[in-house]
Amino acid sequence: MVTTTEPVSQSVGHKSKWDIPRTERDDPFQFGQRYLEDEAAVWDFNAWDHVEWDEEQEILAQEKLEKQKENPVNDFDKKLYMSNPSRYWDLFYRSNKSNFFKDRKWLQLEFPSIYANATAKDSGPKTILEVGCGAGNTLFPILAANKNAELKIVGVDFSHRAVELVRESPEFDPAHIAADVWDLADESGRLPAGLEEHSVDFVVLIFIFSALAPEQWDAAIRNIDRLLKPGGEVLFRDYGRYDMAQLRFKGGRLLQDSFYVRGDGTRVYFFAEDELRKIFDSYFVVDKMGTDRRLLVNRKRKLKMYRIWLQARFIKRASLDNATGTSTGKIE
Fold it and tell me: How does pLDDT run across 222-243, given as a tens digit for each residue?
């Protein structure tokens, strides 16, 4: 495990350091400061940050992945899951409605540029596009913090039911929010209702890119590029390779390498940093990228859960090719 000279029992004033909210003690992409120094202390807290695996854990993880390959999804079922993925998300939101995901209040810590440059008073006309908006667990917290009279937030999802949940919410404010059914990997050329090419300042991708099949990535990146203004930002967080959720999959769930179908029919991919960089760097500058490795602990049941998430901030290249309207390699 990672060691550190920082004592866990640090305190600020009369409070323990850990009584202070992360938004007040951490920096963006820092991913916490609670290091596991002594394995015997693992049950003292519910979570530990920056927990690296030892060689034995790496070997066990590889063995689990090899075992999954022995029994992939059969061809008939794979065709069902790949042909109409939105159907399974519709069923998901009909069952779970708006109570499955927690509001993402950590956005202010990890992606402060939204709040400094879009929701702050006198930020001027700004547009935020959340792709895979679900029931609004990202866009509604952003709206709650908004002080900009000229802010526009557009939430899109390829699940009709998810868009209905956003529109039906008591927090829905048509003065600032619009919601539309739209597939990020759409290849027809259609953009979300009310948006034009190069009109968006921020694209938020939180646990959405992983729902796409690898063969859809290129179309998705092109659509993001079409929508973003030069210099616009993509804010990304998603599942990392070897996350607990990946290693838990049993036989009959693997669609292709690192790409799975859950029991409810929804799909999920687990990314590696170098792979994610390669996906985005044709159109975007990688401003920040990091892996959030966290050990979650169930102290009552004595369970350890190793979570791995990737987080990134991409900036659209600042100059456009006049003939194609796409980003060029020049950075201004």
Answer: 999 999 999 999 999 999 999 9
